[in-house]
Each structure stands twice: as C-alpha cells, then as structure tokens.
C-alpha cells in the first residue's frame, strides 16, 4: 500500500497546504500519489472503508471545506509529453501550465493556458479553461482528446469522444464529481509570440476607462483577448509607487497578431485617460504570465461570477457602486471579453455554458480583515444588481464558497444537471466523490 498521512504526522500539514488558505479541510487520510497505480489504491481504500474522497493538485480552486475522508494529492504526478507531429500534449494529473508552456514552446506550440502559469492543467481544463487565446481558439476543455480517470469502483478508464462518451462529456464541466483524472491529452496551437501586457489607470479614471474599454471591446477581432481588472491596491511598500493605495483600472491584452497592428488596435485605450503604467510589447508566449502578473503567494480568497449578455451603463454604475473605491469590502472585479471562438460549439462539447454571453463579471475578495460572511454579502449585492442581464455562472471561478450543497444547481441547466446525475449514478452510485460542488447520483436511474 502506498504511503498515507494522518493528522499529527510530520508531513500532513505541508501536504495539505495549497494556494487557497481560507477553506479549511481536515481529511482522515492524505494519499500523496506519484502514479496512476497509487490513485487506484487510494480510491479502492476509500471504497473498502466507506469514505468520501477528494483530490487536490495546486489548491487554486479548492471547492469546499470538509472534515474526514481521503484526500489524494497529485503534485508528484508531473510528466509532460509533447507530440509535435500531432500538435498534442499528454500531461499527468499534477502538472501546472508553466511546465506545458515551456515544453510546447520548444516545438513552436502553445497550450490554451490562462492568466496564471501556476494553475493546474487538470482542474483548469475540467472547469472549462478560459485562455489568453480563448477568443481565437475556444475553451481548453474543447481541445481535450482523451481523459484517463480512476472512477469510484477503483478502475482506470480512458474517456474519449469514442469510448466512455458520457464520462468524457461529464468530466469537462462536472470536474471532480466522477473520479480522479490521472492524465489528460489535448491539442496545442501554433503560437510562439503575443502582443500583450497591461495598461494601468488611476482611481479618478475608473469610470471613463470602464466605458471606453466596453465600447472598444465590441469592435475587436477574435485575435484579441482582453480583460479589465479593477484592483484596490494596498497601501504597502511592496506595491510600486504610482499604484500604491490607488483603485487601479488595469486593461489586460493578449493579441495574436503583429505588434504594429496591436499598437493600432490599443491606441484608443492608451488615449482613454492618463496612464500610470504601460507594459504592452511583443513578448514570447513563455512570458504570458506577465500580462496579468497575479500574486504567486498563497492567500485566502472568496470569489463569485456571472456571465452577462451585455455591459450597459447601469451595470457599469452598479459595478462602481458595489465594488469600486467606496465599497464596504475591498474587491477585485474582472471583466472578461467573451465571444469569438468561445461562442462556437465544438464537435464534442463538454457540459454546456452560455456560449452567447458577451462578458464574464468576476468579483474576488481577499479573506483577511473581511471574513467570508461579509464578503459573501458584498458580492451578493453586486450580482443582485447585475441579475437582469446575468445568463449563468462559471463554477471554475467560484472560490471559497460555503454554499457547496446548492452551487451545482445554480450553474448547470436542469437538463444538464439531470444528465450529470445519470452519469454519476452509473460511475459513482455511492456518491464517494462528494467533497466538492456535488452532483448527486440520480436515484431513479437505471
Ligand atoms: C490566480 C488564479 C488565476 C486563474 N486564472 C484562470 C484563467 O485564466 N482561466 C481559467 O479558466 N481559470 C483560471 N483560474 C481558475 C482555475 O482554473 C481553477 O481554480 C482550477 O480549478 C484550478 O485547478 P488546480 O488544479 O490548480 O487547483 P486545485 O484546487 O488543486 O483543484 C481545483 C479543482 O479541480 C479538481 N481537480 C484537480 N485535480 C483533479 C483531478 N486530477 N481529477 C479530478 N478533479 C481534479 C479539484 O478537485 C478541485 O475541485 C484561475 C485561478 C486562480 C486562483
């Protein structure tokens, strides 16, 4: 039997630690897995002892708090193989995007990775995977060609568009409800360079920049992926002087075209208001993490989101009122431009989301002085105000939520929830994988 860690063991706390530190979990047993065989053993152990089971890679997207059960950690499973002939990658369960970006670059290829290279490939992709290249190439989940997964019966299965088809569908969106993925295979795209970076504006320009970006975004080709972040910068020495203590508007750009055309496209943004910072330049894709430049250190956070059909002036006013400089809880708001290839249905889609939505609105607050409860109330006010234009919600951007029992019913359509519950009944009838935003097995499936 593979190694197991229990509370009190010297390495237990370190093995449990992840990026998110505000969602407490205390499993009875942690299984540090180094191979698919270790995962099989762990799942069979959970079955024999009638225990629920969860999985963690980096801890960026920890779903729910829990006590007891088995936690399988995958960060030792870090094999990456690139097949240049087919432009595909095969990665083990614990691989982070940074490793795939580096390996693929040697062949002039890139994965559909996101803003932060430290995020895990499997959790990201099973949640959809909204990439810096998304408007040109679609969701990361839509590039997946095969998923190897250990289901609750302790069997290692291979799900593809042709084998285990229901499981192949359910895993891409239903994430960790159906088993522990041990390896993922997916397509890469021919990208080596980007015109990218960010533009930063000060507190007094927030409203102007929001409006200018919203209008500009409507005109952009699919080669342009962009987000606008509103960030309350702490008044601390670690924050560079022009931004320190300000509520900054940060426009993030990832443009798949030459620098001259990129410069032309962003000219109206540069002219929108006085700039506090401008990092836009041609960069190798291996430096794509510098665009958002997100903090790399573990912290506690809570986040919620909505997909929206538009961003009208009433909505921009509500965002400024509930999450701007005067808001009761310091909140980072991220507006992501959707559309382009993200709107197109691939041949083998995963669980549906609103592909017609124009933007996502995400709110993220650090759990620090403001506790989870105060943050939840503040986020609710914001999303209540946006409700008339909200078309859905993305589970992959829900963090630190204590409404675990109800979250699945909020994100999936009734038809998809029913189909997910049927797949669940087939592969996990005892609901062993329930320490997450749980989809319960259909009781009448048969
Ligand atoms: C700073 C930051 C930046 C981000 N940027 C983006 C972005 O640009 N685009 C985007 O789409 N998302 C982004 N995300 C969201 C991110 O994709 C999700 O939080 C994702 O779930 C993280 O996966 P992980 O493996 O790193 O984290 P973990 O917390 O280890 O896992 C997250 C979830 O995935 C499940 N999971 C992990 N491994 C497995 C496995 N082997 N089998 C089955 N289930 C598994 C876990 O059970 C858990 O529910 C970002 C998140 C953060 C914190």
From TrEMBL:
Gene3D superfamilies: 3.30.465.10, 3.40.462.20, Uridine Diphospho-n-acetylenolpyruvylglucosamine Reductase, domain 2. Its cofactor is FAD. It holds the Pfam family FAD_binding_4. The keyword Flavoprotein applies. PROSITE patterns: FAD_PCMH. Keywords: FAD, Flavoprotein, Oxidoreductase. Residues 23-191 form the FAD-binding PCMH-type domain. Coiled coil: none annotated. GO terms for molecular function: FAD binding; oxidoreductase activity. Belongs to the oxygen-dependent FAD-linked oxidoreductase family. PANTHER family: BINDING OXIDOREDUCTASE, PUTATIVE (AFU_ORTHOLOGUE AFUA_1G17690)-RELATED, FAD-BINDING PCMH-TYPE DOMAIN-CONTAINING PROTEIN. This is Oxidoreductase. It comes from Amycolatopsis orientalis (Nocardia orientalis).
């Amino acid at each position: 039997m593979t190694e197991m860690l229990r509370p009190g063991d010297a390495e237990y706390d370190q093995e449990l630690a992840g990026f998110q530190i505000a969602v407490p979990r205390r499993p009875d047993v942690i299984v540090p897995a180094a191979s698919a065989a270790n995962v099989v053993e762990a799942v069979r152990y959970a079955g024999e002892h009638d225990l629920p089971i969860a999985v963690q890679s980096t801890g960026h997207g920890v779903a729910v708090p829990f006590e007891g059960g088995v936690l399988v950690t995958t960060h030792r499973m870090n094999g990456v193989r690139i097949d240049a002939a087919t432009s595909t990658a095969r990665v083990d369960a614990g691989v982070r995007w940074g490793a795939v970006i580096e390996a693929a670059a040697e062949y002039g290829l890139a994965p559909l990775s996101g803003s932060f290279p430290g995020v895990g490939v499997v959790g990201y992709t099973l949640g959809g995977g909204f990439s810096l290249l998304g408007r040109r190439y679609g969701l990361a989940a839509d590039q997946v060609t095969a998923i190897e997964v250990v289901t609750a019966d302790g069997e290692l299965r291979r799900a593809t568009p042709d084998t285990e088809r229901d499981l192949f569908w359910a895993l891409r969106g239903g994430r960790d409800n159906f088993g522990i993925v041990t390896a993922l295979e997916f397509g890469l795209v021919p990208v080596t360079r980007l015109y990218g970076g960010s533009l930063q504006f000060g507190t007094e320009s927030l409203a102007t920049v929001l409006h200018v970006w919203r209008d500009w975004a409507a005109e952009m080709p699919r080669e342009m992926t962009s987000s606008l972040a509103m960030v309350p910068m702490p008044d601390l020495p670690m924050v560079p002087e022009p931004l320190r203590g300000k509520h900054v508007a940060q426009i993030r750009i990832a443009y798949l075209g030459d620098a001259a055309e990129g410069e032309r496209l962003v000219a109206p943004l540069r002219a929108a208001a006085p700039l506090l910072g401008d990092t836009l330049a041609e960069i190798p894709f291996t430096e794509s993490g510098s665009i958002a430049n997100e903090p790399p250190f573990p912290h506690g956070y809570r986040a919620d989101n909505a997909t929206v059909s538009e961003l009208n002036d009433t909505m921009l006013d509500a965002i400024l009122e509930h999450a701007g400089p005067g808001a009761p809880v310091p909140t980072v708001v991220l507006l992501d431009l959707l559309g382009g290839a993200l709107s197109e249905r691939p041949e083998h889609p995963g669980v549906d989301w609103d592909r017609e939505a124009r933007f996502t609105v995400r709110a993220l607050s650090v759990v620090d002085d403001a506790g989870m409860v105060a943050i939840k109330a503040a986020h609710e006010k914001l999303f209540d105000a946006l409700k008339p234009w909200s078309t859905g919600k993305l589970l992959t951007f829900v963090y630190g939520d204590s409404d675990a029992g109800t979250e699945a019913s909020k994100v999936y359509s009734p038809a998809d929830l029913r189909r997910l519950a049927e797949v669940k009944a087939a592969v996990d009838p005892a609901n062993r994988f329930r320490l997450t935003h749980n989809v319960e097995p259909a009781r009448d499936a048969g």
